[in-house]
Amino acid sequence: MEDVAIIGVGIHPFGRFGDKSAIQMGAEAIRSALADAGLEWKQVQFAFGGSCEVDNPDAVVGLLGLTGIPFMDVYNGCATAATALDLTADAIRFGKYDIGVAVGMDKHAFGAFTADPVHYSAPPWYGDIGHFLTTKFFGMKINRYMHDHGISHQTLARVAAKNYRNGVLNPNAFRRKAISEEEILSSAMLNYPLTKYMFCSPDEGAAAVVLCRADIARRYTSNPIYLRTSVLRTRTYGAHEVHSSWAAVEPAEAPTVYASRAAYEAAGIGPGDVDVIQVQDTDSGAEIIHMAENGFCADGEQEKLLAEGATEIGGRLPVNTDGGLIANGEPVGASGLRQIHELVLQLRGQAGERQVPGNPRVGYAQLYGAPGTAGVSIVTT
Question: Is residue 42 packed enough to be buried (19+ CB in 10 Å), middle (13-18) or exposed (0-12)?
Fold first, then answer.
């Protein structure tokens, strides 16, 4: 199989943009990625696009140029962008194409996501009695985790405060105001123990990545970043995941654990080799849990790590250096490619005020979405 390189990344800022469509944002992200790669749209041989709200992200070609290329659309919950990235990379890995684009775009309405429980393999009554709430699930999950592993409310606030601080340094972030731990803790309780400022928000934005065969990457850039692996896994029996209306007697590990293990094996590295980390922080509790599920610490060690600043930009485990979902919000189709955008900037040494010191060489990105899908990607210099 061919090795795959990232030669261009682009992003449309995340936030709220009035009447601008998700398709327009996607086109801007692709143009930015192409400019970063020094390519024109007519040189792109194929593309994968991902979105939750847009049922035809391939319509972006109407704004870029009708070149006749194959353009495939995907949706896979919060792992949509990881899916688009993986499929684009695989088409190159297996020799079908040389150069392709993965793009994600979304424009969500204000407020929480809503859907029919039946579409998530849950019974209709689950929604009728008011249990079909993602915030409820995340609150229950981290509450149990805190009880079992000695995680404090202060640590939940530390995660959110860190990500807001990192967002201040990111010109593309939605929330660019620091919020103190005290204010986070005292804000309205949504689903115990998670307060208002511990959650991300659905919003708008787009991100794109240009991929090519690794052996031709230096034709376009002197600093290619290599996509060592991209892995997707779904839940196994016994995993209590988003929208589960029941729990097995014998619990199983979350899908992130399996995706992470497979990614490390495929890339030939371990957690100790990773320099910059991006994990799904739908809420601050999710970041804490995902640190352990991805192998960066043991369950319960997060309490000490957060207290000593290990996950800060200058710490030994920098997590969500661009502010993560908490600062950026989550346009579902774009979120995972935002992670790759950040990792590429970090490995190139182009992240500005939020640059991780010490010449980082390995970046790690993880996504997790309902009803239990995880994606992991590893990039290196």
Answer: exposed
pTM for this entry: 0.97
Q: What is the pLDDT of residues 294-338, one digit of tens each?
A: 999 999 999 999 999 999 999 999 999 999 999 999 999 999 999
Residues contacting residue 133 through CB under 8 Å, at least 6 positions apart:
112, 191
Give the phi and the psi of residue 58 in degrees, each rounded to 5: -65, -15
Q: State phi, psi for 105 to the nearest 5 degrees.
A: -150, 145
Burial class (CB in 10 A: 0-12, 13-18, 19+), 21: middle
Angle between helices 284-293 and 255-267 (to 10 degrees): 50
- As beta bridge partners, residue 194 has 191
Can you say whether residue 68 is alpha, beta or left, with left for phi > 0 and alpha for psi between -120 and 50 degrees?
Answer: left
Confidence of residue 137 (pLDDT cuts 50, 70, 90): confident
Closest CA to 205 of 69, 45, 341: 341
* CA 212 centroid distance within chain: 21
CA distance 130 to 141: 17
Confidence at 212, pLDDT banded by 50, 70, 90: very high
Q: Are 262 and 231 in contact (CB under 8 A)?
A: yes
Q: Is 164 helix (H, G, I), strand (E, B) or coil?
A: helix
- Helix, strand or coil for residue 35? helix
pLDDT tens across 15-32, in order? 999 999 999 999 999 999
Residue 112 has pLDDT above 80, yes or no: no
Q: Which two tokens stand for residue 375?
A: 């994606």
Please choose, from the candidates 158, 122, 123, the residue with its C-alpha nearest in 3D space to the C-alpha of residue 326. Answer: 158
CATH of domain 4-110+200-380: 3.40.47.10
For 38, how many CA atoms within 13 A lie in the half-sphere containing its CB? 9
- Who contacts 114 (Cβ-Cβ below 8 Å, separation ≥6)? none
**Coil/strand/helix, residue 309:** coil
How high is the pLDDT of residue 134? Answer: 85
